[in-house]
Amino acid sequence: MADKLKLLVALLLIAAGVVGFYYYAEQALLYRVLALLAVFGLSAFVAYTTQVGSDTWNYGRSAIVEVRKAVWPTRKETTQTTLVVMAMVIVMGFILWVFDTFLLWAVKLITGQGG
Fold first, then answer.
1. Taking residues 45-53, what's their average pLDDT?
2. Segment holding 90, helix H or strand E
3. 99 vs 47, 91, 105, 109, CA distance in Å?
4. Using CA atoms, how far apart are residues 113 and 67, in angstroms rounded to an integer?
5. Residues 80-109: b if buried by 16+ CB within 10 A, e if exposed
6. For 10-41, how does the pLDDT look when each residue is reduced to its tens digit (9 = 90+)?
7. Closest CA to 40 of 58, 6, 16
């Protein structure tokens, strides 16, 4: 129950920050943006203190660790793969064009149209 209240407080903080941003429209934009960022930071801190917030934070950190473990292709590998994909697209386009032309010929032959 306490976690739900904390999440509600975090949500209300964000709502109050957005309302305040527009309510004080006559103030300098810099001050309004800084205040909004401060409210968002406070809201994130309140949300982090919940179990859901802590789990989300840990999930994000583990995702970053997994991304660092990934082996990214070299420039040469990327170029070769791109060229192979482009060649296959051209070959498949030609095959589909030939198939479409054959079907058009067959339909004209069967229906007796276009002669």
1. 92
2. helix 75-111
3. 59, 12, 10, 15
4. 59
5. eeeeeeeeeeeeeeeeeeeeeeeeeeeeee
6. 999 999 999 999 999 998 999 999 999 999 99
7. 16
d(CA 76, CA 78): 5
Name the 3-class secondary structure at 74: coil
User: How many other C-beta atoms are found inside a 10 Å radius of the C-beta of residue 40?
Assistant: 15
Does 98 have pLDDT greater than 60? Answer: yes
* pLDDT the model gives residue 112: 86
Going by C-alpha positions, the residue among 101, 78, 82 that lies closest to residue 90 is: 82
Residue 44 one-letter amino acid:
A
- Dihedrals phi, psi of 73, to nearest 5 degrees: -70, 155
51-69 and 2-23 helices, crossing angle to 10°: 80
SS3 24: coil
Structure token digits, residue 15: 């709502």
